[in-house]
Amino acid sequence: MEKAWNRELDYLKSIIKKTGLQETTKWGIPVFTYNGKNVVGIAGFKSFFSLWFYNGSFLEDKKQVLINASEGQTKALRQWRFHSIEEIDEEGITSYVEEAIENEKQGKRLIPQKKKQLPIPTQLAAIFENDHLFAERFAALSPAKQTEYLEHIDAAKQEKTKLSRIEKMRPLVLEGKGLHDKYKK
After folding, report:
1. 38 with 31: CB under 8 angstroms?
2. What CATH number should be reported for the domain whose range is 3-105?
3. N or C end: fewer C-beta atoms under 10 angstroms in the chain?
4. Which helix (H) or strand (E) holds 31?
5. Residue 119 and residue 108: Cα distance in Å, rounded?
6. pTM value > 0.70
7. DSSP 50
8. Which secondary-structure segment (H or E) carries 78?
9. DSSP state of 120
C-alpha cells in the first residue's frame, strides 16, 4: 500500500467502520468482511487510492463511479478511484457499502463460467509428435494446468514467441508443474 495516501485511507476506513463490517488484512491491504466474506477493500497506488467492491458488479452504481480495473480478467470486482481527499463522498460511500452488505446477505455471487478447452496449438502438436514423453506428461496435467499453458502459448502473437514459450514450459511439464505453481502456496 502506498504511504502517500495514509490520511485518505484512514478516512475511508473510518467511514467503512461505521457500517459494522469487520476489518482484516488480506493481500497486504485492509479488507472489510461480513460473516467472513469479503465485501470491500481499500488500497493506495501511485496516482490514486481506491475502494474495491468484491461483488461490485451487483451494485447499482447510481453515481457511475465504479470501474472494472482489469477488463477481461476480473468479473465481479469493481473499483472506485479517488485522487484527493476532497473527492471522498461519505454519504455516497456509505450507500455503496450498505448496498454491498445487503447483496452479501442475499448471497449474490457471480458464478464463474467454465472455460472452454482450448485446442492444442499446431506448434505444440508438432513437438508432441516427436516427443512422446512431453506429450504424456502434458496429458497427465490437470485440465486447469493444461489451460494455463495453452493460454500462455495462445497469447503470443509471433511464431518464434510461441516456440520459445513451449521450450520454456517443457521442463515444468516434465516435472508435473503448472505454469503458475511457483506463485501458489
Report:
1. yes
2. 3.90.1150.200
3. C
4. strand 29-34
5. 33
6. no
7. E
8. strand 78-82
9. P
Phi/psi-derived region of residue 151, left when phi > 0, alpha when psi is between -120 and 50, beta in every other case: alpha
Residue whose entry in the numeric block shows the C-alpha cell 495516501 = 5
Alpha-carbon gap, residue 61 to 162, rounded angstroms = 41
| Residue 121 · residue 162 · CB < 8 Å | yes
pLDDT of residue 74: 81
pLDDT tens, 82-123? 999 999 999 999 999 999 999 999 999 887 777 677 899 999
Outline which parts of the chain fall under CATH 3.90.1150.200. 3-105
For 51, phi then psi, to 5°, come to -105, 140
Burial per residue of 94-133, b for 16 or more beta-carbon CB atoms within 10 angstroms, e otherwise: eebbebbbebbeeeeeeeeeeeeeeebbebbeebbeeeee
Of all residues in the chain, the percent with pLDDT exceeding 90 is 82
Residues in the chain: 185
163 contacts 152 by C-beta, under 8 angstroms: no
Residue with cell 502473437: 157
